[in-house]
Specification:
This protein is an alpha/beta fold. Helices cover about 40% and strands about 15% of the residues.
Length: about 150
């Protein structure tokens, strides 16, 4: 199981999902939990793309076998439903891994928690960088006549 916002898809997302799937072995199924809009607002910022569209796009990504929306109440509800062998945390996700393992254990969930440390570095390797680039761009008048 991998989790994330997946607001503006970039190569870092692909890298994270590919690495997550590899951890499960040859016949692994990768289930991706897409953060709800309320969760994104509480932890990061207002999402650009609505949650149902983010879910749809994540489902289309090659490493993903299934994508689901997370719980707005308690993130462990989704974990209890999926019962993953492995939960991956992305390199930019700010989770206390010891706390996460302890909470899983309290709930009788035996999932291994793994931080994906590698990263696919590009000039636009985060949603924030993409948003900043758009805001700083000086598009000539008429550039978007087909939008």
């Amino acid at each position: 199981m991998a989790t994330g916002t997946f607001d503006l898809i970039h190569p870092g997302h692909g890298y994270y999902l590919e690495e997550s799937k590899k951890l499960g072995g040859k016949d692994a199924r990768l289930v991706v939990v897409v953060a709800r809009e309320s969760t994104v607002r509480a932890r990061k910022r207002v999402p650009i793309v609505p949650e149902k569209q983010r879910l749809e796009v994540v489902q289309m990504l090659k490493p993903v076998d299934e994508a689901v929306l997370g719980s707005e109440i308690d993130m462990f509800i989704t974990v209890e439903k999926i019962k993953p062998d492995v939960i991956t945390i992305g390199p930019d996700q700010k989770f206390d891994l010891d706390w996460l393992r302890e909470e899983l254990n309290k709930r009788g969930l035996k999932s291994e928690v793994v931080k994906i440390n590698g990263y696919h570095h590009t000039s636009l390797d985060s949603s924030c960088k993409i948003i900043k680039k758009i805001k700083e761009s000086d598009f000539p008048s008429g550039s978007f006549k087909h939008c």
